[in-house]
Amino acid sequence: MTHRFSGHDPGEGKDTGGVPWEGRTLTGTGFDGDTGEADARLAHLLAEADPDPVALVEAVSGARLIVPVVAVPGEIDDSSGIPADATSDMASVTLVAPDGQRALPAFTSTAALSTWDAGARPVPVTAQRAALAAVQEGCDVIPLDLAAPPGPAAYTLRPSMVWALAMGRAWAPAHSDEHVAAAVSAAVSDESDVAAHRLEPGPEHALQVCLNLRPGLTADQVRALVTRVGERIATDGEARARIDALAFRLQAG
Question: InterPro entries per the record (predicted)?
């Protein structure tokens, strides 16, 4: 069996690549004085039964988060006839729900992380870095402070929240987001059968687009109109990233 760093002696003054330690400057992580405790404001909001989402995302944006890193099998030693891990690597954790939704878990404190997995290594990061990692890993959501499996999260940051954190901007619900409002207005502007429209909060955090339609439209005409409007909204990538789900409510008028 060959070890990855066999023959390396740190006492010789060089790293595994042969580069001398002498003359190097070690810089801090930005969390040198971190005690591992949760941000007080964020912890207070997470303790509420139904925290205000705007206030919560704002608190998250200014807090230090902890992402877990765990050991994964590397080289395999089968010299004894029984395969066993000879080495291991460290990797960030991503979770996949039964419906295929991917998640990057994050924690507000080392205590919360230990409750979930005592063997995970805590890596402190800014909320923006955690969100950027989620986007890069194709994760839709960030569950905060997951309980021990199969426990729930204290709060799950939705896709629009993750995107806002990654972009370093304030988050707003889609129905009160100015960019979304402009995108919807553009999507209905060429529809002569839409007399008026407005945005409302919908079920399951969806944006509900209320359309007042000209009387007398057939069911097929209505379906085609709604499809066109939905597709136009979807072509605006920034608007799509700010909308967790889209629903329509139709009425004559």
Answer: SseB_N
